[in-house]
């Protein structure tokens, strides 16, 4: 029993770390798509943020300046997406794909000409990384059975951005469902003409949604490069932006569901690393590849309408044109 | 220097290289780029060593896209470069076409076999080098459990894993080797976040040494191993410097030697199958100031003895790619 508990803690710990970038990117996508702007450029924004946060943290030695640089880089790409798809009414998917390619190429190019390390940033030392913080009383409570280790090992001991990500969930819910801004944001994704008729700027709302998306992607990228890792490696986001999109569909564009779907996807990734545990406790072998593919399989099942229906915001993907 | 002078000297340089181009060797780097701190950079080091020692010059190009492979090969062949050396298995299909059209030019491809009369195919006995670092890991491990983390799950990486396990078991038959692959797509070469998590998972299972054969993912593995206070083993080039005192050793693939040999042979390059193993300095383990305190004289003596035996053929390390199976787990 104790062994099971220990294993449970390690896997959950890993789940939390792996879920965090997914959760931030998923909420970023949620803001953007709820306002009617599809965003498959999450991946690219995260990658750009990962690079600039690591680069600036390496040069300045300050992780906070790095975070700021990461968010700025992501914001710049978000703005680009906004200009292309809101102001110029371009195709949102194409703009997103372009951003992904741009980020994948530019980060390596800049890294190479700046640091000459084959598209990497130098390894970050103490001040350039987000440290794992120990929550108050973690050490004293650690000896309490069950709850002690749960608090000291699982809840405590993560970098601050993990807690920021978790706090963003209720915040997102509150903004979307309890503020005037949130109501209008949701409305602009469903029926922009109604919002326009009410005299509220569709363009302004969509831009703010896209920029919020940029900030959250920036935090996600910075967390990967300066929290989980100690530097940038080319293509280090490794498709997490797409998994976040799958999680967003799985969550049916709702904040609390987003938390649970990201935790589920994170858990699937974490358990794939410990396939030996499945054999130990359930008595049968599972192919690691199957576990890796499960997030996508689940998303397809949801999309196909087997488990409830996932209905995207009605005006999603459509540039808004004022009727004349 | 005025602009005019710059132009003049540039033209002069071009004229000189054009004159000397006749039998200049050429080197083509793969997409990773010349200064990737790994494979391509080792190839460059070998070429540079040849240039420094002989006073010769060589032509080079860094590929920017997949489509340039054949183009680069043809341009060098047209310009009369001989031999033309390619760093990377990805050139195979382009070379198959080009080699036929230039029968008088010699080509050398690293890490892949291309069957043509004017091509030298250089392959490395990674399993032998991995065997040696496996022996070292088993000797340095206190828990009796060591780890292996591969990049993409392909036969080449299983070859690393299989050699490593054989080395570990040769020292300690009861040792446990935990094996993980990062993924099944090329993204697995550049996923340091997953590399870190895999390292933490292996530590939770008792591993105290972890061997990373995973490209860019290895950066995360070595970092986490250093953060968590266990030892790691680097791959391809000497990665001991990345975390001094925390990296036990590195399994070196001497791409530089392969390039050096090919350039030294010049137009008389011997074609066919060229195996770079322990016997001819193709693979080995890295020792320097960064890991001197981690490797005792006894450990090194045991590993060197095994290396000598492998070199003479007295000890045979099973090659996974010969039958796609590994006798030990």
Descriptive overview:
Chain A has 324 residues and is an all-alpha fold. Chain A has a single domain, classed as Orthogonal Bundle (ABC transporter involved in vitamin B12 uptake, BtuC), CATH 1.10.3470. Chain A is built from 14 helices and 2 strands. In chain A, strands 1-2 form a two-stranded antiparallel ribbon. Chain A is globular. Chain B is α/β, with parallel strands linked by helices and 329 residues long. Chain B has 2 domains: 14-124 and 256-276, Response regulator (Rossmann fold, 3-Layer(aba) Sandwich), CATH 3.40.50.2300; 126-252 and 296-323, Response regulator (Rossmann fold, 3-Layer(aba) Sandwich). Chain B is built from 11 helices and 12 strands. Chain B has helices at residues 3-20, 39-54, 68-78, 92-101, 126-140, 155-171, 192-204, 217-228, 255-265, 297-312, 320-323, and strands at residues 26-29, 59-62, 84-87, 107-110, 119-124, 145-152, 176-183, 209-213, 231-236, 247-253, 272-276, 283-285. In chain B, the strands form 2 sheets. Chain B has a 6-stranded parallel sheet, sandwiched between helices. In chain B, strand 1 (26-29), helix 2 and strand 2 (59-62) form a beta-alpha-beta unit. In chain B, helix 5 crosses helix 6 and helix 7 (192-204) packs across helix 8. Classes of the chains: A mainly alpha (324), B alpha/beta (329).
- What is the multimeric organization of the chains shown? heterodimer
End-to-end separation of chain A:
70 Å
Low-confidence stretches of chain A: none
CATH class designation of chain A: Mainly Alpha
How would you sum up the major sheet of chain B? 6 strands, parallel
Work out the count of structural domains of chain B. 2
From the coordinates shown, what is the CATH architecture of chain A? Orthogonal Bundle
Profile the largest sheet of chain A.
Answer: 2 strands, antiparallel
Roughly how much helix do the residues of chain A carry, as a percent range? over 70%
Q: Which whole number gives the mean pLDDT of chain A?
A: 91
Spell out the helices and strands of chain A N to C. HHHHEHHEHHHHHHHH
């Amino acid at each position: 029993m104790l062994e099971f508990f220990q294993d449970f803690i390690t896997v959950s710990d890993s789940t939390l770390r792996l879920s965090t970038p997914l959760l931030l990117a998923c909420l970023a996508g949620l803001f953007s798509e709820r306002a009617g702007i599809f965003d498959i450029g999450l991946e690219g924004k995260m990658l750009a943020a990962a690079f600039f946060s690591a680069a600036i943290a390496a040069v300045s030695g300050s992780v906070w300046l790095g975070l700021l640089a990461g968010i700025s880089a992501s914001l710049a790409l978000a703005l680009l997406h906004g200009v292309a798809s809101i102001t110029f009414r371009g195709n949102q998917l194409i703009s997103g794909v372009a951003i992904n390619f741009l980020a994948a190429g530019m980060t390596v190019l800049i890294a190479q000409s700046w640091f000459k390390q084959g598209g990497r940033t130098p390894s970050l030392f103490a001040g350039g990384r987000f440290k794992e913080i120990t929550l108050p009383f973690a050490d004293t409570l650690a000896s309490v059975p069950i709850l002690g280790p749960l608090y000291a090992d699982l809840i405590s001991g993560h970098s601050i951005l993990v807690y920021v990500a978790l706090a963003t969930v209720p915040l997102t819910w509150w903004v979307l469902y309890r503020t005037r801004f949130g109501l209008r944001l949701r409305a602009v994704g469903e029926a922009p003409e109604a919002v326009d008729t009410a005299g509220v700027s569709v363009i302004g709302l969509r831009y703010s949604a896209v920029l919020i998306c940029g900030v959250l992607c920036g935090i996600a990228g910075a967390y990967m490069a300066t929290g989980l890792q100690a530097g940038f490696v080319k293509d280090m986001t490794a498709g997490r932006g797409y998994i976040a999109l799958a999680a967003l569909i799985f969550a049916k564009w709702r904040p609390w569901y987003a938390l649970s779907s990201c935790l589920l996807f994170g858990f699937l990734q974490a358990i794939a690393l410990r396939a030996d545990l499945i054999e130990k406790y359930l008595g049968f072998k599972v192919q690691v590849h199957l576990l890796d593919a499960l997030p996508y399989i689940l998303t397809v099942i949801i999309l196909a309408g087997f488990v409830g229906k996932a209905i995207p915001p009605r005006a999603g993907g459509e540039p808004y044109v004022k009727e004349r | 220097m005025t602009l005019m002078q710059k132009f003049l000297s540039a033209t002069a340089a071009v004229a000189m290289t054009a004159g000397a181009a006749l039998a200049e060797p050429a080197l083509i780097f793969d997409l990773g780029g010349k200064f990737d701190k790994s494979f391509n950079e080792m190839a460059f080091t070998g070429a540079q060593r040849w240039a420094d020692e002989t006073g010769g010059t060589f032509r080079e190009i860094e590929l920017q896209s997949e489509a340039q492979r054949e183009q680069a090969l043809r341009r060098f062949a047209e310009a009369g470069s001989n031999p033309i050396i390619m760093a990377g298995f990805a050139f195979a299909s382009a070379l198959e076409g080009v080699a036929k059209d230039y029968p008088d030019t010699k080509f050398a491809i690293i890490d892949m076999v291309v069957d043509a009369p004017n091509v030298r195919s250089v392959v490395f006995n990674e399993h032998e080098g991995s065997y040696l670092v496996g022996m070292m890991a088993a000797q340095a491990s206190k828990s009796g459990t060591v780890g292996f983390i591969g990049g993409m799950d392909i036969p080449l990486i299983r070859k690393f894993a299989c050699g490593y396990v054989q080395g570990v078991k040769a020292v300690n038959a009861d040792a446990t080797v935990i094996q993980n692959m990062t993924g099944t797509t090329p993204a697995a070469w550049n996923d340091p976040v997953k590399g870190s998590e895999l390292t933490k998972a292996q530590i939770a299972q008792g591993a105290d040494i972890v061997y990373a054969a995973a490209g860019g993912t290895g950066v995360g593995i070595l970092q986490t191993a250093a953060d968590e206070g266990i030892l790691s083993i680097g791959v391809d080039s000497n990665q001991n410097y990345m975390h001094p005192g925390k990296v036990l050793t590195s399994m070196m693939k001497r791409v530089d030697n392969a390039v050096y040999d090919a350039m030294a042979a010049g137009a008389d390059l011997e074609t066919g199958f060229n195996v770079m193993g322990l016997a001819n300095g193709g693979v080995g383990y890295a020792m320097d100031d960064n890991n001197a305190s981690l490797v005792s004289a006894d450990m090194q003596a045991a590993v060197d003895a095994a290396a000598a035996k492998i070199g003479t053929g007295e000890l045979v390390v099973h090659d996974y790619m010969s039958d796609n199976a590994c006798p030990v787990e």
